[in-house]
Structures are given as structure tokens and as C-alpha cells.
Specification:
This is ATP-binding cassette domain-containing protein. Keywords: ATP-binding, Nucleotide-binding, Transport. It comes from Cytobacillus mangrovibacter. It holds the Pfam family DrrA1-3_C. One of its GO terms (molecular function) is ATP binding. By secondary structure, this protein is an alpha/beta fold. It folds into 2 domains: 219 residues, P-loop containing nucleotide triphosphate hydrolases (Rossmann fold), CATH 3.40.50.300; 80 residues, Alpha-Beta Plaits, CATH 3.30.70. The chain contains 11 helices and 14 strands. The strands form 3 sheets. The chain has a 6-stranded mixed β-sheet, sandwiched between helices. A 4-stranded antiparallel β-sheet has the order 2-1-4-5, with helices on one face. A 4-stranded antiparallel β-sheet has the order 12-13-11-14, covered by helices on one side. β4 and β5 form a beta hairpin. The longest helix has 18 residues. The radius of gyration is 23 Å and the shape is globular.
Length: 310
């Protein structure tokens, strides 16, 4: 369906994207992960034909979109990170407006708008002005606009940012349903690792303008197959305790979400004794310790050294 070949974008003082290669098979949902500034948005903009690359190519069904950008525009839907709606129009009016931009006939558009409103769960609010909508409803309408022209491929750039859990779950289920029932191919970026785990068949991890890992969820997790994840919870996180943990040998990675600490260490290393010994020395009360196989989030931290939201 989509192939990105040695795609690069250089600005005067910065190389934003450096030789990215990725592909999407028809009917796949593929995740593109990376911390802020990794180059995801620039890559998406080049795939969408909004930015001309410095070098490389984007091919849709084996045809270069650099030569025929209208080819991808006819089959691509984009859900941008920022809400792209007219706030003083109703939900129905927004869909009708964007439908006309896509040159959908007036006769066909009426039925298409009703169908989209049903998919995104806004039929009962179709005549309400968008500025009265909650954040989650605006996000759902944003998705609806991208579906109007029946795209075969859809790019979703953090479609659940800043919304309530109920709306977020609705959007995730909608994405999954569109992929399975309508066979829409999806390229999905998110700041929520659990969303990518739930939706995606394969994952690309990007940092500093480059793809640094790619594969299925299981293949990505196997990067740390020889390691174990040790989670430590304390009543009050003290800087002295954290510094002593960081100084221990064999620590592959350490991350903190106060009051929890996560260590990545080789499976063959027994570090539990040191954890409690250092806690005693610093008068730190450890409330729980658990050992797990490293998660996708652990692998991401190991590869980038940063939280997904950093």
C-alpha cells in the first residue's frame, strides 16, 4: 500500500529526517512512535504530500507521489494532531463543507454525511455548533472529516490527545472497527504506548530523525529479552536513594514516575538485596517490588533514553 524509501528532509541548520524507510501492507495498522522532536510530524507531512522531501521517495501502490501527488490525496485521509474544524459551523455543516472540497456530489454527500455521523457517534448532535462540543467530540468529528472520501489509507497523528477516557476508548474502538470491517490501512502515532499496543500490528520507533527499531510488538520487546524489569514503589522518593541506585553496576536503564522507579537489569543479576540495603541506608520505605518481562515502554526508554511524552 505505502512504501517510504530513504526519505530525508534537511532545513538550513537541521536535518529533521534522515533516510527513513518504512512500509505499510494493505489492511495493516502500523504504529510510528518517537519522543517529541523525533521527526514524526515532518515524516507524516512528506507522506501526505504537504512537504517536499530533500531526497528519497514516497510510493503509493508502487507509484511515486512526488510525481503524482494527487494519487495519494485521492486515497489518503489525514487526522491531524490539531483540531481542523470550523467552530461556528455545526457538525453536519463541517462535514458538508469538507465533502464539497473532496468534490463529492450533492446527492451522494447527504447519505455520506449521515453514514459518517453514525460511525463517529454524533448523529444526535449533528445540528449543534462545534464550539459547544467537548474535546472528545471534536476529535471524533476530526476523524469523520478524514473518512468522508472513503480513503484506503488513513494517517492518525495523536488523535486522542487531551480527551477523557470514555472518548478515547470510543476512538480506539472506531479505529479498530474501520481497520477490520472496511480494511482501511492505518498509520498511527500516539503519546500513549498502550494505544499502540492495542491497535498496531507492527511498530516503527523513531528518534533524531531516524528509524531506530522496527518489527512486531513481540520482536520489539525481544530487544530486551535478556533483561528483566524491576519496579520499585516507595512512600517518599529521595534523591539520595535514586542516586545510589543509579550508581549500581549492571543497571541498563532507570526511569522514574514518582513515587515509582523502574530498573532494567540483566536477568542473571540478583539486585534485590542491593535495593533493600540502599533503602535502609537512606531511610527510604519500600512499599513494593515486582519483577516483570520488559514492556514496550521499557524498550522505548532503553532505545531513546526518553519517555514517550518527553
Amino acid at each position: 500500500m505505502l512504501e517510504v524509501v530513504e526519505l530525508s528532509k534537511h532545513y538550513k541548520n537541521k536535518k529533521a529526517v534522515k533516510g527513513v524507510n518504512l512500509y505499510l501492507e494493505k489492511g495493516e495498522t502500523v504504529g510510528l512512535l518517537g519522543p517529541n522532536g523525533a521527526g514524526k510530524s515532518t515524516t507524516i507531512s512528506m507522506i501526505s504530500s504537504l512537504i517536499v522531501p530533500t531526497s528519497g521517495d514516497v510510493r503509493i501502490m508502487n507509484e511515486s507521489i512526488l510525481k503524482k501527488p494527487e494519487k495519494i490525496r485521492n486515497i489518503l485521509g489525514v487526522v491531524p494532531q490539531d483540531i481542523a474544524l470550523y467552530m461556528d459551523l455545526t457538525a453536519k455543516e463541517n462535514l458538508e463543507f469538507f465533502g464539497r472540497i473532496h468534490r463529492i456530489s450533492k446527492k451522494e454527500l447527504h447519505g455520506k454525511v449521515d453514514e459518517i455521523l453514525e460511525i463517529i457517534g454524533l448523529t444526535d448532535r449533528k445540528n449543534d455548533v462545534v464550539k459547544t462540543f467537548s474535546g472528545g467530540m471534536k476529535r471524533r468529528l476530526n476523524i469523520g472529516v478524514a473518512l468522508l472520501h472513503e480513503p484506503k489509507l488513513i494517517i492518525m497523528d495523536e488523535p486522542t490527545v487531551g480527551i477523557d477516557p470514555q472518548s478515547r476508548n470510543y476512538i480506539l474502538e472506531t479505529v479498530k472497527r474501520l481497520n477490520k470491517e472496511k480494511n482501511i490501512t492505518v498509520l498511527y502515532t500516539s503519546h500513549y504506548m498502550e494505544e499502540v499496543e492495542y491497535l498496531c500490528d507492527r511498530i516503527y520507533i523513531m528518534d533524531h530523525g531516524e528509524i531506530i527499531a522496527a518489527g512486531t510488538k513481540e520482536e520489539i520487546k525481544n530487544i530486551l529479552s535478556a533483561e528483566q524489569s524491576i519496579g520499585i514503589k516507595v512512600d517518599i522518593l529521595k534523591g539520595e536513594y535514586l542516586q545510589l541506585l543509579e550508581s549500581l553496576p549492571n543497571i541498563k536503564n532507570i526511569s522514574v514516575q514518582d513515587p515509582a522507579i523502574t530498573l532494567i537489569v540483566p536477568k542473571k543479576v540478583n539486585i534485590l538485596k542491593d535495593i533493600f540495603k540502599l533503602a535502609e541506608e537512606t531511610n527510604t520505605s519500600v512499599t513494593s517490588v515486582h519483577i516483570e518481562t520488559p514492556s514496550l515502554e521499557d524498550v522505548f526508554l532503553h532505545l531513546t533514553g526518553r519517555q514517550l511524552r518527553d
